[in-house]
Amino acid sequence: MTDTHTSEAVGLRERKKARLRENLVESGLRLFLEQGYHGTTTEEIAASVGVSQRTFFRYFATKEELILEAVRGTDALLLTALRARPADEPPLVALRNAVQDHWSLIDPRTRDFLGRAATVLKEDPAVVDAMMGYCRGRQERLALAVAERAGVDRATDPRPDVLTAAFLAVVGTAHEAWSASGSTDPGDLLAAIRDRLDLVPEAVGGDWGARRA
Question: What pTM was estimated for this model as a whole?
Fold first, then answer.
């Protein structure tokens, strides 16, 4: 076999593996929504895409890892959208607009699951632990992207870290408010995130007396 044929064969195998990984994530999220997180087994997820449980474990050691894979995908889209925003946009505005930009690129099933499951998954200790560990890395990656975009050095300028910590906290409050509202429409979640990000300048430095009146 020539080097070209070998390269093509390797490329085909990698594409098949990537597609199977995507199928496992998509099917897992679908089953979590239909049957509940605890009511879904890794064997069922594997069977839904026509592979064995043993094959599932070659890709994901646990169901928590499958969820994190979906989260990583959405975060990657957010980082890409942030880096594509116009250079003259202030950092908070760029983050707010990047949220809007990346929303339509997220697979609807993933978007639906990650929104609706927030209140359910937080009750599972294994998922909470996995997400806590992941979120520390998420803030680091986002702060790095903000710093690179603004052309500042995080070692001497703490603003990217402060901004991203505030940004993720605001997104968290939006998730909580959306869940409490009883809505199951991810569009309402996006609106809640946008609205709260728009309040940040006023909340930090505005005159609260006018709003109280």
Answer: 0.77
